[in-house]
Amino acid sequence: MENCLNVPVFEIISDIAAEKNLKAFVIGGFVRDCLLRRNSKDIDIVVLGSGIDFAEKVARRLGRKKLSIFKNFGTAMLKTGDLEVEFVGARKESYNRNSRKPVVEDGSLEDDQNRRDFTINAMAISLNKEDYGRLVDPFNGITDLEKKIIRTPLDPSTTFSDDPLRMMRAIRFASQLNFRIDDVCFASIRENKERLKIVSAERITDELNKIVLSPKPSAGFIMMETTGILQLIFPEFQALKGVDEEGGQKHKDNFYHTLKVLDNISLVTDSLWLRWAAVLHDIAKPLTKKYEPGLGWTFHGHEFLGYKMVPSIFRRLKLPLHESMHYVQKLVLLHLRPIVLSQEIVTDSAIRRLLFDAGEDIDDLMTLCEADITSKNPQTVKKHLANFKKVREKMAELEARDSIRNFQPPISGDNIQLVFNIPPCREIGTIKNFLKDAILDGIIPNNFDAAWEHMIEKGKELGLTPHLSKEDILRIENQNGTIESPSPSKP
Ligand code: CTP
Fold this sequence. Notes:
The protein has helices at about 10-20, 30-35, 50-60, 110-115, 140-145, 155-160, 165-175, 185-190, 200-210, 215-225, 230-235, 235-240, 255-265, 270-280, 285-290, 300-315, 325-335, 335-345, 350-360, 360-370, 380-400, 415-420, 425-440, 450-460, 470-480; strands at about 25, 40-45, 70, 75-80, 85-90, 90-95, 100-105, 125, 135, 150, 180, 245, 250, 290, 295-300. By secondary structure, the protein is of the alpha+beta class. Helix 1 (about 10-20) packs across helix 3 (about 50-60), helix 13 (about 255-265) packs antiparallel against helix 14 and helix 23 (about 425-440) packs across helix 24. It binds cytidine-5'-triphosphate.
């Protein structure tokens, strides 16, 4: 196992262990990832003795002043290069059934390995001179790695009641690594799932995000559904499951459809929030579902209701409530627009409006819409993709001409006020909207000169008289340095 130890810090730890007559091992995720040939930046060192004292000695040897000490947990962490090395004394832990607060005692390496979550996470490599590089693997984690199995070292109900989050972790690792959860372990998750209620939303969501970010997230979602965890932590998603039939007509199962969209998008992006947009794009379908004789199943307004549901879901899951949430909301709201466009005769105006509404996120929206094509008929898929290609081409063409994506009104509200010598009032908004609509509808190009003429006309209509000339405004703006150079425009 020495090939896992070719980072200098291991030699230093080994030397200090020998000098102080202590035992030290690297354990957990680092060992697992090395055997899986995955890159890992987090190193966990377990010491038979005090982890903090040992870490202080290592820090001194490395000439490091900074060491983060977590007294309550008996751990210390230092950074070396891009690695984070955490030291902990070997422990024997038992948990109070109704709280996460462990009763901690010093223990042997074996005790420490017993209290870990999975066999593949309980392997240790010796850093001691007498057997440097020896794998200590009491639960045969290495075979589970080869067989791709997630299994607990002890009886799963013991391991899971020590920390119920481990039920989510089992599913997360299985999804991330494309492993299978051992049958006994899986049955135990089903049985003990309610214990997740004592775990904080933040910790659950950390795991959920890792499932969303796994190569094929549907695997994790299906495991969450089968074990009953999904219903507990994300009932809105669970509600997508199922097919109704009326008048001999069935709608598609939106649970599997959403998972297909999520898998599709995961092939082309690692962005957590774009993946979340896929998770949530049809979230309001169960609430808007209706059978309309003659029409079949409809989900009218699901994009709008979905947009409204996002904040409460984000809040409950303790996901961030600002930029990322607004981004997800926007994609949920707009996710049908490109599809509609690609089915109709596309007008420039409709494309400009979509560019305006999606702004910077237009490419992500198109990616979501392409992932949303889940038909099994290759001809249908081909047709939709060809239509989207046309929409994209048209967008590029209009964007080059009118730069709508980062739309800034060519004349600001302040300037409208100055020109007509009026206080802040409704007319300003009316003129601004009038100019915006004229640009989006292609009536005028997106530049100052065209907007000026249009503004004066609209002003007249509203009974307003200009008090300043175009040149006056340009001069004022140039002095303030606020006027943007006119957008490129073709006549
Ligand atoms: N561990 C555990 N039970 C938990 C969390 C962690 O037994 N609920 C143990 C496992 O041995 C795990 C190690 O602590 O390997 C480190 O935990 P962590 O850093 O959370 O996970 P990693 O296994 O390193 O994996 P990842 O970095 O992907 O989270």
